[in-house]
Amino acid sequence: MRDLYYDQLDSIVDDLVAMTGSVRDAVREATVALLSAKADAAESVISGDRAIDLSRELLEDRAMQLLATQQPVAGDLRVLVAALRMVADLERTGDLAVHIAKVARMRMPDIAVPEPLRPQIGRMAEVAERMVGSASRIIAERDVEAALELEDEDDEMDQLRRLLFRTLLSDDWAYGVEPAIDIALLGRYYERISDHAVSMGRRVVYLVTGEHPAIASER
Question: Could you tell me the pTM of the whole model?
Answer without folding.
Answer: 0.90
